């Protein structure tokens, strides 16, 4: 069994790979996917063999050097049973200023088909990677997105009604109890949830020991918050934030395409239908974590990136 850890690095320094129309609120995971592809390509280029034609300034059609593609084992790094894609230069990690100058926000997406009993481990893995990447000890806000929950419908009233039947409250509370412990330890200052409608949020508030400070919801119009949800949030001091994130941000097929031998793939995984190089086996996405570092006195984002993890059950 191999753990795959994917990373984007700081997407704020990589240039705009996506341009969205002003006012759009369609859910998208394009930022994650494009940023991963960009980081893979940059690592492959950095570790590629130099051109041998003597013309060091010559560029290929894609604007990169014409040297041979870097073997996967050069631009990735294996540590025991974990494969980092791409390898990470931890010496160059960290923020420009002292951590106290920033507000650090993390959103943890727990993905479908993963065991509930493993969620504690997933949260620890994600937070440890982010702490190491940013050189911090404490996260200001951790928002958890549970699988199988959405806030979608022809109108906000319908979305609120459908939401009440989604997810598994007992499983969500079991996960929340561990996050509460992180809060008590000082590792996380505030906790939040995503896609909780009025009924779900009301029940959750009654049963949770530490109440969520934030509830992120997807709305077609940010002014059309269902009155029951707004009432509950106001009564309990829960901040309602609008977002456009995908609920299932990294499906299995998308991950395999991202890491596979296709033209836009990283070449880490082999084509299961054809002979060739690459790792073989079943791959299961486990979690995705997005982190944001806001400069407090300027209100700008200095560092933004993603980590994602998956498990590969290798076969010959």
Automatic annotation (TrEMBL):
This is GCS light chain. Pathway: Sulfur metabolism; glutathione biosynthesis; glutathione from L-cysteine and L-glutamate: step 1/2. Gene3D superfamilies: NADP-dependent oxidoreductase domain. It comes from Hapsidospora chrysogenum (strain ATCC 11550 / CBS 779.69 / DSM 880 / IAM 14645 / JCM 23072 / IMI 49137). One of its GO terms (molecular function) is ligase activity. Pfam families: Aldo_ket_red. Coiled coil: none annotated. GO terms for biological process: glutathione biosynthetic process. Keywords: Glutathione biosynthesis, Ligase, Oxidoreductase. Belongs to the aldo/keto reductase family. Glutamate--cysteine ligase light chain subfamily. Residues 97-240 form the NADP-dependent oxidoreductase domain. The keyword Transferase does not apply. One of its GO terms (cellular component) is glutamate-cysteine ligase complex. Heterodimer of a catalytic heavy chain and a regulatory light chain.
């Amino acid at each position: 069994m191999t753990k795959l850890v994917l990373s984007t690095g700081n997407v704020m320094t990589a240039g705009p790979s996506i341009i969205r129309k002003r006012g759009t609120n369609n859910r998208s995971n394009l930022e994650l996917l494009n940023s991963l592809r960009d980081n893979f390509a940059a690592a492959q280029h950095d570790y590629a063999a130099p051109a041998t034609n003597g013309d060091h300034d010559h560029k290929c059609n894609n604007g990169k050097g014409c040297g041979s593609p870097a073997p996967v084992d050069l631009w990735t790094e294996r540590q025991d049973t974990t494969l980092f894609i791409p390898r990470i230069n931890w010496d160059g990690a960290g923020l420009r200023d002292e951590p106290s100058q920033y507000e650090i926000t993390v959103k943890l997406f727990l993905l479908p088909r993963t065991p509930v009993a493993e969620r504690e481990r997933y949260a620890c893995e994600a937070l440890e990677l982010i702490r190491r990447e940013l050189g911090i000890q404490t996260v200001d806000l951790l928002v958890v997105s549970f699988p199988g929950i959405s806030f979608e419908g022809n109108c906000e009233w319908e979305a609120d009604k459908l939401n009440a039947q989604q997810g598994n409250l007992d499983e969500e509370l079991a996960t929340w109890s561990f996050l509460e412990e992180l809060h008590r330890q000082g590792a996380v200052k505030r906790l939040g949830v995503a896609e909780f409608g009025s009924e779900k949020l009301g029940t959750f508030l009654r049963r949770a020991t530490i109440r969520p400070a934030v509830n992120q919801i997807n709305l077609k119009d940010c002014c059309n918050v269902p009155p029951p949800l707004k009432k509950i949030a106001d009564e309990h001091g829960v901040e309602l934030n609008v977002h456009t994130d995908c609920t299932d941000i990294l499906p299995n097929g998308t991950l395999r395409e991202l890491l596979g031998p296709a033209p836009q793939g990283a070449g880490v995984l082999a084509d299961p239908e054809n002979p060739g190089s690459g790792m073989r086996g079943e791959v299961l996405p486990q979690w995705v974590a997005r982190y944001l570092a806001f400069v407090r006195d300027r209100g700008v984002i200095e560092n933004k990136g993603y980590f994602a993890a998956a498990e590969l059950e290798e076969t010959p």
